[in-house]
Write a structure and sequence with these properties.
The complex is a heterodimer of chains A (346) and B (240).
Chain A (H helix, E strand, L loop, with lengths): L18 H11 L5 H23 L1 H4 L8 H8 L17 H20 L3 H18 L6 H13 L10 H8 L2 H13 L4 H8 L5 E2 H26 L2 H5 L2 H6 L16 H21 L3 H21 L3 H11 L5 H7 L11
Helix pairs in contact in A: 2-5, 2-7, 2-16, 2-17, 5-6, 6-7, 7-11, 7-16, 9-10, 11-14, 14-15, 15-16
Chain B lengths: L13 E2 L3 H26 L8 H16 L16 E9 L14 E4 L8 H16 L8 H4 L2 H29 L3 E9 L4 H5 L11 E3 L27
Antiparallel strand pairs in B: 2-3, 2-4, 4-5
Classes of the chains: A mainly alpha (346), B alpha+beta (240).
């Protein structure tokens, strides 16, 4: 057990009494910084706002008395002889004013989550309102809604607003203890006001809840890829290499004509098999450091392809964002040097 | 093997979780993770005959939790094989054709309509609606052989009631949005062309020959002729 779960997460002064449990605790609870989660928060909040904006573009067709799937049909679908635990207050009302207010609140909470304003509060509001909408929109949802709700749910337990956020900026800007020092120092010409303020702003703490949220996203993602891959193993098109052709040949998904790939049958078949093997082995290949970068690179190619060529830009983008959970926070910080605006800890 | 790469950027200030709380959270994690696994396991272990009993039980146990948290998915994206797309053809009847020459009465349209629905996410919502509508299909009438199967007939009666309600709901919404008197909905299927049809025979992906009208009844024999061969109608709104 010791060799399988190296107890790196333990503080140096602690004695390893239960190596397995201690390793597990280290894996889930060793404090970490919020930079990776902050990037996920920005993307997730922006996407939640966009999703609700699109619902609002045609709200009367999706909710209310004249919806494509009206409340009576919704109830018939979910209150049948098989137990169904979907519940949403949006299926209980036909008032368009209330429904519109809900969507505006959801959209606003997405924007506030994106900018990190009262981050944890609005993460919970954004997740809950989006969940309520998802329950109401039976028959209109796809992978995008699954991944956005998954990310929003786990962001609720993190401290993703501790960096690159309005919250952090406010903390920095109005740190009362610092202000007196900074004004005094600046007037005295000892150092610049901004420099002294930076030194006094409370540190960004490494927090166990960031690690827990990151691990939950990572493990959930592994489950998604494992079953996505196992499902494909059942199909002969994924074995004979023709699945890639039939994917790009779907007019209803297509956003860019990729049928020219049919001229390169071997390459198209190789792409099919690479996708299959990558998806099935993701759960194993994403953990060792020496192949993680390659696994993430293939994820970028696969989901980038879905985003650009299969008309699901939003879904492809959010899957790439979810994969970022495997990028360590300090690397994320280095990768995004252009985001210093609210990173007052630099 | 499991990386514990939780870096410390400055390592000046850490918020740690008390050990007792960690144990509770680990137990909660185990509960939650089983919930994450329950639906894909149940979904994956299904066959025409039965579902793996242990996964069926797990799925049943976790149904309230996974369903309410919207985690009840099988994650079968483009699996087991990429399949045909489904559309809804709506044929509207108007009590009175608007007289203004600027208002062109739409006689037929397809849901989803790529030209009309923008942004792409909105199009995708309607595309999912068409797929969902097709997935809930229950035939209007069944064959005499099928009528002898009591269990089938019970299930069919329930499914048909749902399908009829869904059809009425969609029709009512579409009628209202276009001020039409009535609308007839038909399910269409766009099969995927093979590479020879496209690259050698020159078919486009939206070639009408790839679209067939699906039957609404078990008594209707095979699929109806392709859309292109149907009796001609005003087709101002039809795609492709």
């Amino acid at each position: 057990m010791n060799s399988t779960f190296p107890a790196r997460g333990r503080a140096s002064n602690e004695v390893a009494e239960e190596p397995f449990l201690d390793s597990l605790r280290g894996f889930f609870f060793k404090p970490s910084s919020p930079h990776t989660l902050a990037v996920i928060r920005i993307a997730c909040g922006g996407m939640i706002a966009y999703i609700h904006l699109v619902w609002m573009m045609d709200l009367e067709s999706f909710m209310g008395p004249h919806a494509l799937i009206n409340n009576a049909s919704w109830k018939a679908l979910h209150r049948g002889h098989i137990a169904d635990y979907k519940w949403t207050y949006l299926a209980q009302t036909e008032s368009m004013s209330l429904l519109r207010a809900h969507e505006i609140l959801a959209c606003l909470s997405g924007i506030l989550l994106c900018f990190g304003v009262y981050t944890r509060t609005f993460a919970i509001v954004a997740w809950f309102t989006t969940l309520m909408t998802a329950h109401r929109m039976t028959g209109l949802l796809f992978g995008l809604d699954q991944i956005v709700l998954l990310l929003a749910m786990y962001l609720c337990i993190s401290r993703s607003g501790n960096v690159w956020s309005f919250d952090r900026w406010m903390q920095h800007r109005f740190s009362s203890a610092c202000r007196s020092w900074s004004w005094f120092d600046a007037m005295a010409g000892l150092r610049s006001a901004s420099q002294s303020r930076n030194e006094c702003t409370p540190e960004i703490p490494d927090c166990w809840s960031n690690t827990l949220a990151t691990r939950l996203i990572q493990l959930h993602l592994c489950v998604i890829y494992l079953f996505g891959g196992l499902g494909k193993l059942r199909g002969e098109m994924w074995w004979d290499g023709s699945a890639m052709w039939y994917t790009v040949a779907s007019y209803d998904y297509q956003s860019m004509d990729m049928t020219w790939t049919g001229h390169f049958a071997i390459l198209s078949s190789m792409a099919t098999h690479l996708t299959l093997f990558w998806e099935v082995s993701y759960i194993a290949m994403i953990w060792p450091k020496w192949v993680r970068a390659w696994t993430l690179f293939v994820a970028l190619i696969v989901h980038g392809g879905i985003a650009l060529f299969l008309g699901m830009f939003t879904f492809g983008l959010m899957m790439i964002v979810a994969n970022m959970a495997f990028v360590p926070p300090q690397r994320m910080r280095r990768l995004l040097p252009l985001l210093p605006l609210f990173d007052t800890d630099r | 093997m499991i990386p514990t790469e939780t870096p410390q950027i400055h390592n000046r200030f850490q918020i740690r979780c008390p050990k007792g709380v960690q144990n509770v959270l680990l137990a909660l994690f185990l509960f939650h993770f089983l919930g994450v696994l329950s639906e894909p396991l149940r979904f994956f272990s299904r066959s025409d005959v039965r579902t793996g009993p242990e996964f069926a039980m797990l799925g049943e146990l976790y149904r309230p939790y996974s369903q309410w948290l919207y985690m009840n998915h099988g994650y079968f994206f483009f699996a087991p094989n990429p399949g045909p797309g489904h559309l809804i053809r709506c044929t509207f009847s108007f009590a009175k054709i608007p007289e203004s020459p600027r208002i062109e009465p739409i006689q037929e349209l397809l849901v989803p309509d790529r030209k009309e629905l923008w942004p792409r996410l909105l199009y995708h919502r309607y595309f999912m609606l068409a797929e969902f509508y097709n997935s809930r299909y229950a035939p209007d009438t069944v064959t005499d052989d099928a009528k002898k199967d009591i269990e089938f007939m019970q299930r069919w009666a329930y499914d048909k009631e749902l399908y009829d309600q869904l059809r009425a709901s969609i029709a009512s919404s579409l009628n209202r949005s276009r001020n039409a008197e009535r609308v007839e909905l038909r399910r269409l299927e766009r099969v995927l062309p093979d590479s020879q049809q496209v690259l050698k025979d020159g078919w486009t992906l939206n070639d009408p020959r790839l679209v067939t009208v699906l039957p609404e009844s078990m008594v209707e024999t095979n699929m109806l002729p392709p859309v292109a061969e149907l009796p001609s109608k005003p087709t101002s709104g039809i795609q492709p």
